[in-house]
Amino acid sequence: MFPARLPWGTTYAVNLTSDASGIGSWKEEQFIKALHERKWMGLDNTRPLMPPMSMMPAIKMSDDELKAIFAYLKTTTPVKNIAPQAVLLPPAASKS
């Protein structure tokens, strides 16, 4: 697991396997919402997805395409791997 250290903080690649520490307990609707709306874990009132995940062109994919990806990911070998939480920096002060 490699961190991405960028101007807004540090993010980590998440587990997309079928394990419960990945997307094993996710519902299809949650996966679609996460990628279409770029919401963390496909949940309302959460932070946005961070790079590299937010950079995927999934926002332009159809529900059927995302359903196919989700169905495939659910068939993967489960790998227990809990990614650290993103460490986001506070917004930079604006220069007046």
Overview of the molecule:
The chain has 96 residues and is an alpha+beta fold. It has a domain of 51 residues. It contains 2 helices and 3 strands. Strands 1-2-3 form a 3-stranded antiparallel beta sheet, with no helix packed on it. The longest helix has 11 residues. The protein is globular, with a radius of gyration of 15 Å. The N and C termini lie far apart (39 Å).
Biggest sheet character: 3 strands, antiparallel
* Cα end-to-end separation: 39 Å
Strand elements, count: 3
Please state the overall shape, judged from the principal axes of the Cα atoms.
globular
Strand content: 5-15%
* Unreliable residue stretches: none
Instruction: Please identify the oligomeric state.
Output: single chain
Percent range of helical residues: 10-25%
Please give the order of strands in the largest beta sheet: 1-2-3
Radius of gyration of CA atoms, rounded to a whole number: 15 Å
Averaged pLDDT: 83
Number of helices: 2
The structural class is: alpha+beta
User: What order do the helices and strands follow?
Assistant: EEHHE
Essential attributes:
96 residues; alpha+beta; three-stranded antiparallel β-sheet; 2 helices; 22% helix; globular
